[in-house]
Design goal:
Helices cover 85% and strands 0% of the residues. The protein is mostly helical. The chain has one domain (19-100). Keywords: Membrane, Transmembrane, Transmembrane helix.
Length: 101
Protein backbone atom coordinates (compact mmCIF):
# COMPACT_ATOMS: atom_id res chain seq x y z
CA UNK A 1 0.00 0.00 0.00
CA UNK A 2 1.35 3.39 -1.00
CA UNK A 3 2.17 5.89 1.70
CA UNK A 4 1.06 9.52 1.47
CA UNK A 5 4.51 10.54 0.17
CA UNK A 6 4.47 7.84 -2.49
CA UNK A 7 0.98 8.85 -3.57
CA UNK A 8 2.05 12.51 -3.75
CA UNK A 9 5.00 11.56 -5.98
CA UNK A 10 2.94 9.27 -8.20
CA UNK A 11 0.29 11.96 -8.67
CA UNK A 12 2.86 14.68 -9.45
CA UNK A 13 2.63 15.89 -13.09
CA UNK A 14 6.43 16.17 -13.35
CA UNK A 15 6.86 12.56 -12.26
CA UNK A 16 4.25 11.45 -14.77
CA UNK A 17 6.00 13.46 -17.49
CA UNK A 18 9.34 11.87 -16.57
CA UNK A 19 7.94 8.35 -16.69
CA UNK A 20 6.02 9.01 -19.91
CA UNK A 21 8.92 10.64 -21.77
CA UNK A 22 11.49 8.08 -20.59
CA UNK A 23 9.25 5.16 -21.52
CA UNK A 24 8.39 6.60 -24.92
CA UNK A 25 12.05 7.26 -25.71
CA UNK A 26 13.19 3.83 -24.52
CA UNK A 27 10.48 2.03 -26.51
CA UNK A 28 11.33 4.08 -29.61
CA UNK A 29 14.99 3.12 -29.38
CA UNK A 30 14.09 -0.50 -28.70
CA UNK A 31 11.84 -0.51 -31.78
CA UNK A 32 14.60 0.96 -33.93
CA UNK A 33 17.08 -1.66 -32.71
CA UNK A 34 14.56 -4.43 -33.23
CA UNK A 35 13.95 -3.19 -36.78
CA UNK A 36 17.67 -3.12 -37.55
CA UNK A 37 18.18 -6.58 -36.09
CA UNK A 38 15.16 -8.09 -37.86
CA UNK A 39 16.25 -6.58 -41.17
CA UNK A 40 19.65 -8.19 -40.72
CA UNK A 41 18.13 -11.57 -39.81
CA UNK A 42 15.78 -11.47 -42.80
CA UNK A 43 18.70 -10.63 -45.08
CA UNK A 44 20.64 -13.57 -43.66
CA UNK A 45 17.65 -15.86 -44.16
CA UNK A 46 16.44 -14.74 -47.58
CA UNK A 47 19.26 -12.86 -49.37
CA UNK A 48 22.08 -15.40 -49.38
CA UNK A 49 23.65 -14.05 -52.56
CA UNK A 50 23.66 -10.47 -51.30
CA UNK A 51 25.10 -11.38 -47.92
CA UNK A 52 27.77 -13.60 -49.49
CA UNK A 53 28.85 -10.96 -52.02
CA UNK A 54 32.48 -10.06 -51.52
CA UNK A 55 33.57 -6.48 -51.07
CA UNK A 56 36.51 -5.74 -53.31
CA UNK A 57 39.06 -8.48 -53.84
CA UNK A 58 39.34 -9.47 -50.16
CA UNK A 59 37.49 -12.05 -48.13
CA UNK A 60 35.10 -9.62 -46.44
CA UNK A 61 31.48 -10.07 -47.43
CA UNK A 62 28.48 -7.74 -47.26
CA UNK A 63 27.13 -9.90 -44.42
CA UNK A 64 30.18 -9.22 -42.25
CA UNK A 65 29.88 -5.48 -42.84
CA UNK A 66 26.15 -5.47 -42.08
CA UNK A 67 26.76 -7.51 -38.93
CA UNK A 68 29.21 -4.86 -37.78
CA UNK A 69 26.62 -2.19 -38.61
CA UNK A 70 24.15 -3.95 -36.27
CA UNK A 71 26.71 -3.93 -33.45
CA UNK A 72 27.67 -0.29 -34.03
CA UNK A 73 23.98 0.70 -34.16
CA UNK A 74 23.46 -0.90 -30.75
CA UNK A 75 26.34 1.12 -29.30
CA UNK A 76 25.12 4.35 -30.91
CA UNK A 77 21.56 3.89 -29.67
CA UNK A 78 22.86 3.11 -26.18
CA UNK A 79 24.97 6.28 -26.29
CA UNK A 80 21.95 8.26 -27.42
CA UNK A 81 19.92 6.92 -24.49
CA UNK A 82 22.71 7.71 -22.00
CA UNK A 83 23.01 11.25 -23.39
CA UNK A 84 19.25 11.81 -23.02
CA UNK A 85 19.22 10.21 -19.55
CA UNK A 86 22.09 12.39 -18.33
CA UNK A 87 20.51 15.51 -19.79
CA UNK A 88 16.75 15.72 -19.96
CA UNK A 89 15.80 12.87 -17.64
CA UNK A 90 18.22 13.95 -14.91
CA UNK A 91 16.95 17.53 -15.19
CA UNK A 92 13.36 16.34 -14.81
CA UNK A 93 14.39 14.24 -11.81
CA UNK A 94 16.12 17.23 -10.15
CA UNK A 95 13.05 19.41 -10.74
CA UNK A 96 10.85 16.73 -9.23
CA UNK A 97 13.13 16.36 -6.19
CA UNK A 98 13.11 20.11 -5.58
CA UNK A 99 9.35 20.28 -5.86
CA UNK A 100 8.77 17.34 -3.52
CA UNK A 101 11.33 18.32 -0.87
Amino acid sequence: MATADEARILDNPKFQELVRSRSRFAWTLAGIMLGIYLAFIFLVAFAHDLMAARIGSGVTSVGIVLGLVVIVAAFLLTGLYVQRANGRFDALTRDLQREIA
